[in-house]
Amino acid sequence: MNFPSDLRYTNEHEWIKLESDNIALVGITDFAQGELGDIVFVEIETAGQTLGANDIFGTVEAVKTVSDLFLPVAGKVLEVNPALNNNPELLNSDPYGEGWLIKLEVSTPSDIDTLLDSAAYQNII
Description:
The protein has 125 residues and is an alpha+beta fold. It is built from 4 helices and 9 strands. It has helices spanning 30-36, 83-86, 90-93, 118-124; strands spanning 8-9, 14-18, 23-28, 39-43, 50-51, 56-62, 66-70, 75-80, 102-106. The strands form 2 sheets. It has a 6-stranded antiparallel β-sheet. Strands 4-6-7 form a 3-stranded antiparallel β-sheet. The protein starts with 7 loop residues before the first strand and ends with a helix.
């Protein structure tokens, strides 16, 4: 499994990567997609909404289950990855690249530093 060191992770298996001062990408981890199995649908209807840390921002549906998606830090959902509409399997094939879920305007960027680093995340799984 792959756990890039430039990302931060949550106990709920989401990752976040700060792209600029307060804009970040959020996705699910390689571990999460492996546990879910073949992902067939992504539902995120929170674009434009401001949510708190750990709030549910959408769901991922796999062949066997549906899983909630939890926001790693507080912020405003700016964009949902449009590629997932026709290719939800990107979450399986490229969870840290083309399979990102949302673009987030982070309320307090320093909150990202409180999340798990790669080594700490690997220890919980």
